Each structure stands twice: as C-alpha cells, then as structure tokens.
Structures
1.
Amino acid sequence: MKTSIFREIWLLLSAIVLASCGTSDMIRPSQKIGPMWVNRYGHTTAENIWDHCDGSMTDIPGTQTTDCTIPWVDELFIGHGIYGMDTAQRDALWNATTWELFIDGHAVDLPAFNIADFEATQDDATYQYRVWRIRLRKIPEGLHTLRYVMHVNQQVDGVFDAQSIGAYELIVNFTFGK
C-alpha cells in the first residue's frame, strides 16, 4: 500500500516537473531567428536603435508606426521601456504595465531578458528609466520589424504624460545594413 502511494506521488511530481520544462515558442536569450542572435544586453558597445528610429508611442491607446534605416553594426540594442520623474513614479508606471515584443513576427519572452534601470538627463531634467535588456547580433541585411505592445492596466496618479488604460503599440520597420 505504501509503495503504491509513493509511486503515485512520484508520478505526479514527475508530471509536474516535465510540464514545467515544456518548450516555449517564445524567443529566449541566446536563441536565433534565422542567422540573427537575440541576446541580453550587457556591457557591450551595441548601437542604440533609438538613435536612428523614433521610439515614441502614441499619447492615447493606439498604434504608432515608424520606418528607419540602420547602418551595418555588430550589435543593435533594441530595448524599450518607460521613464518617470523619480524612481517611485517609474516603478509605479512599470508595475501598471505588461509588455509584449515581436521580432520579425516571433514572440519574445521579455522577462527572460531582464530589465535595466538608469538615470538620464534630457532638456535640463533628470529622469529615471527602465528598459528591457535586449540586443540583436548578426542581423541579416534587409527589412526587419519590431513590434512592442505596452498594456497599461491601471492609471498612475501624477504622471507627466497622458496615460490611459489600454494597449499602446509601436511598430518599427527598419532596413538594416544599407
């Protein structure tokens, strides 16, 4: 009788472990889309896509599309995110959102890439930023598409920009290496 119970428990635990190890169709760090590597951004000299492409989302829920050209580079930082007047506002804004990213139509497991927090000054004001740590390497020449979707799930009091509940989509069509 005890052997039967232990066997059933063992089978149940094995099934749970195997189910949690299931494969995902989402792109994770150090995976490839064709010849292109999708990696975490770390201490590299990656070019910032936002130096070449407009990363602005709409002021109200909706879709913003931008087209741009990226000259050939070894690595391209593509992380997007939010900023606040201080860390408390940044954290509140971040906690009020969920994110999706698609690269050339492939869904990306963004939490697997982690986030980076930093401070930057713009127009004599200092802001607290949080961005996804993601970069591309060995990018093939030609047209590529990033599709970021930020879902605002709740309003945050005191934000300096309009923030309405809904989905904000940024589609970046970039031609690489020309």
Note: The radius of gyration is 20 Å.
2.
Amino acid sequence: MAQVVETIDVNVPVSTAYNQWTQFEKFPQFLSFVESVTQIDDTHLHWRVNIAGGEREFDSVITEQIPDDRVAWTSTGGEVDHAGVVTFHRLSDTSSRVAVQIDWEPEGFVEKAGAALDIPDRAVRAELENFKKFIESRGAEDGAWRGTVEN
C-alpha cells in the first residue's frame, strides 16, 4: 500500500477551512482531479474522478468526523481502493494548517511506477495549493456541516 502525507498552511481560521472541506459536492471547484461528488447522506459519497487521464468512480464512507478537527474516510466500492484523513490545526485566530494522509493501493504498472516516483505526493500538494487559493480568495466558506461521526 502507498501513502501520501502533505500539509499546507492557509490564512483562514480553522473553522473556515474545516467548514469548506465538509462541502464535498464543491470539491470540483478546487480539486482538479474531481469531476463530481454526490453526497448520498451524512456519511456516504459517490465520486467521479479523473486519475492519470482515466475516469474512475467509487463510493466512500466517512468513518469519523469531528468539527474543526478531522474528517476520515474509506472507499467502499468501485475502482479506487483507499482511505484517508484530513486534520485541521489552529495556528492563530486567522490561520490554520490542513494535513492530509491518504493510504491507497496502486493498480497496474503506471500507478505503481508513479507511486515509486512520488507523483501522488506532488499531486496532493498541488491540490492543497488549489484549496489554499480557493479558500483564501473567498475568505469564507460557502457552507458547513458541523455534525459528528464517531468511529
């Protein structure tokens, strides 16, 4: 199994970063590989993504969600086998750190080679930069889900 761990500091309060991250259906606005996310209920999502030029679909379940702290998930079916967690850390009243950890199973030669060359790490870093630009340019979230999901 491969693993990606990346962080980014954003110039918004931790609650703003967290609240925006809970708006899963808005992910295509700042995550370039996400074509669509459909939130089925509070914990189930259906994803369409484009990875290395190939469209894939999968379902995921949120396994843990604590406001202003973390969102954890795992895939439950489809073409992508992975799990991850995003954590939110208060740096000051106006800034926070977003940390992402994704564990995934590379499929086929191209994905295995890419993982060996740290391509997924660079891709996640670029996507976090997109999130930073998105949330800082807005200065506020466009929604929030403040519920708790216990593991």
Note: Residues 2-138 form a domain with the Alpha-D-Glucose-1,6-Bisphosphate; Chain A, domain 4 fold (CATH 3.30.530.20).
3.
Amino acid sequence: MSVLKKPLITEKMTKTSEKLGQYGFIVDQNANKVQIKKAVEKMYNVTVDSVNTLIVASKRKTRYTKTGFVSGSTGTYKKAVVTLKKGDTIDFYSNI
C-alpha cells in the first residue's frame, strides 16, 4: 500500500506553497498523519512540520446526452496538506 497517491497541483495549492510552504497530496483513505509525514520526508528529502488531513466527500453529477440523462457521482478521497520547515521546498516539475 502506497500512502501518497499523487500531488495536488492546482492554482490554489501552488499559491499556498509559494506563500506558506504548504503542499497538497491525495493520500490513501486509511493513512494516518504519522504515515503521511514519513512518506513525504522519505520521498522528497524534506522536513515536515505538520500534516492536516481532510476527507473530500463525493458529489452527485448529472448531464444530459443524446440518449437521455446520465447521472453518477465523483469519488470520495482523502487530502493531506503538508507544511514544511522554513527553507524547504518540493519541486514537482524537476523530473519532467
């Protein structure tokens, strides 16, 4: 089981990372804050100050198509916002 699934690279998270040194990740539903902290420190070689987690609820989506209404829902996922020690940064674009 890998704790970190993927980093959140959005305009809002980019702005937050530049100002406050916080980075967002989509993580495994069963992962706790200690596991997330260890995984980020191991993968990116940084020092983690704190970890905040939240579970993003699913949303109902409906759209109209030629064959009629199609309804479904987005998935539920767990998000972690990791605050790094002053001076540490993570560069997600370095290996592109």
Note: The beta strands are 4-8, 22-27, 48-56, 60-65, 68-73, 77-84.
4.
Amino acid sequence: MRVIVPVRCFTCGKVIGDKYYEFKVRVEKGEDPEKVLDDLGVERYCCRRTLLSHVELIDQSISYKVY
C-alpha cells in the first residue's frame, strides 16, 4: 500500500502523520471518526481537518511516467 500522508498539519505544524494509519484502519472498521480522533489525541480542528480531508492520489498518479 502506497500512501503519502502529510507528516505535519499544514496550519499549526503538529506531527500527525504517525496517526493516519490507525485512524484509517479504525474508521474502515466502522468506528466514528470523531471518537477515533479523540482517542488518538488529535484535538486541534486544523489537525482534524487535515486527517479527515486527506485523499490518497498516489495510486492514480504513479501510472504516469516522466521522460
């Protein structure tokens, strides 16, 4: 699985990249995203926004070649 996750929040600079994989797995299992973010200690709304709105585009763009 190829994932490019922001390592830090774009707004405040807090490290959030280490929380993304667990967040994604727990949400896919059916847990409430709000509760998962609370459990992971992501309190700032800017950090929550960054994790919630992240879209994985690497698989779509990796098929292109640069010459």
Note: The domain at 1-67 is CATH 1.10.10.60 (Arc Repressor Mutant, subunit A).
